[in-house]
Amino acid sequence: NALVFGLLLIVPASRGNTKEVNIPELGSLLGSVSKTEWTERPIYQFQGVPYATPPLGSLRFKNPTPAKPWKGTLNATDFRHICPQVSTEAELSELKEKIEKNETVEDCLHLNVYTPQIPGECQSLLPVMFYIHGGSFRVGSARNFLPDYLLEKDIVLVVTQYRLGPLGFLSLQTDDVPGNMGLQDQLLALKWTNKYISQFCGNPKLVTIFGQSAGAAAVTLFLTSPLVQPDLFQRVIVQSGSALCDWAVDLEPVKHARRVASLANCNEEDPQKLAECLRKCSPYDLLIAHNNFLSDVLISEMKAVKGSNGGNHAVIEEKGTNRFLTEEPVKSFIEGRFIKVPMMVGVTKHEGSFFLGNIFDLILKRKFNASDNLTEYLSNDFIKETLQFSGIDDTSGAITDIFQDKFFKSDEIGNFMAMVPGLIDICGVTLLKACTLQTARRNFNIQPTYLYSFNYKGQYTKFGYGEEVNYPFPGGVAHSNELIYLFPNSDGKLNLKDKAIAKLMVELWTNFAIHGKPTDVLKSSVLKWPTMKTSLGPYLRIEEQPSIQENFFLEYNITASEGLSAYMDESSSQSSLHTLYKSSYNISVIMIVLWIVNQFW
């Protein structure tokens, strides 16, 4: 236990702007007090709370075990380590420096609890919102998701960290390196929440799990896992992602793990010896090896989905008694083997701009030199390679022809800027919108399902994720932009219009957690948001003047239908935020073909 207790600062009893709470079986926590953004309600916050034994040494790649009790009072007034990750150059250098100082950087399995009531003096038990962050299961941390907006309402917020990249998802299909460790971390954090949240005035019988992007994929993976007990949560919110997306599951985990291992100079054939070698690797070296693997696959094979997600996505576990995932999630959903609960689910308007940025970097910057005929390439091969990037192999060219005919005008082909709206729609549909809609379609006949498209363009954008980007096109209402209105950012206050949208978003999200429906007609000031009645709607289009629409397929080609000038005008004044988030059934192709048939024949 020395490794655990050596990192835990033991402090005296609470005083001043702090608050102490006792957790049965574990010990006392000292938290701090802050306030909400708009009305300055008190927030009692407990940060960096360990929910698992640190996965150090021989525990690397193993499923997590519950945290052990501590002596004295644990200081929970600040964040602890983020989980090791390849993000910005500065953070990577900081990680290397910490490792050189022998800091236990893999001790990162912590969660943060935020409550509006004084722990130990609960007037009532409040609904709980349990958040799983996104970031391709490679980057992100709990410290990026603060309670200043959501705690304006009577809910308790829990934000968890989990192991990322190869440390959380590498799989040799053995008990030694099973894969899905990051998902097991999330599940243990949820169980911790269920067991102890009443000490923070949270109701363990009224839990909503919500997540965005990879976090949304995790939420829907929870619905299909045989390890997840249905009474651990009562509702889900699925934001811009799903276990049904092709990128969510790695179907060749051992092949990919061995390629990552080779780049880390671990070439043993025997799985046990290979695991031993990987455990001896510095987390820095292992992350760099994984990053090099992803880059190699992207450049050489032009695959961003099925080909390059080894070591940082869910796997179907073939062996073991504690398997998180035993079959493809698509199969589970199609055949009805998933937990059915009320669901809020949706996307952003321009999901595809994030992926188009990747394609722009990959193809137009790296693959060409000055002598290449760019116009000829854009006319003949670019759409096909964009589909390949999105996980659609079109050897016959038939799908490419359909996409070209339905997303582009004839005079746009060959002109990159003219093609941008159609390309954004293609990337958005194939990588996120189709699979997210399919999740809603599988649930709406069984449980109340609220579908949305977030179409509001505000002052800020997540496009570029805080890095310097130099694209000839803006991000629009980009992937992750809805998070700007649920969690505060460090780069600036919201203007009046953005603040109004933030208040609307907070009301919708917390109403769903509290009442089971996002618009409570007795208390809510917003329009009534109906549940889905058909496989395409109705759905809420969230914008400055929210509206109810009936056909979600309108969101599939919305950028192309509005045109380039509207897209450029809509995005011209946005400022980038600094915060970083970074199957045998092809749902995307099926849904797109259905849409094309519905729209045009």
UniProtKB/TrEMBL annotation:
Keyword Plastid among UniProt keywords: no
SUPFAM superfamilies named among the record's database cross-references: alpha/beta-Hydrolases
InterPro entries per record: AB_hydrolase_fold, CarbesteraseB
Keywords assigned: Glycoprotein, Signal
Pfam families from the UniProt entry: COesterase
Signal peptide: 1-18
UniProt cross-references to Gene3D superfamilies, sorted A to Z: alpha/beta hydrolase
Domain of life: Eukaryota
rRNA-binding in keyword set: no
Carboxylesterase type B domain ranges (all copies): 19-551
Protein name (Swiss-Prot/TrEMBL): Carboxylesterase type B domain-containing protein
Organism: Clastoptera arizonana
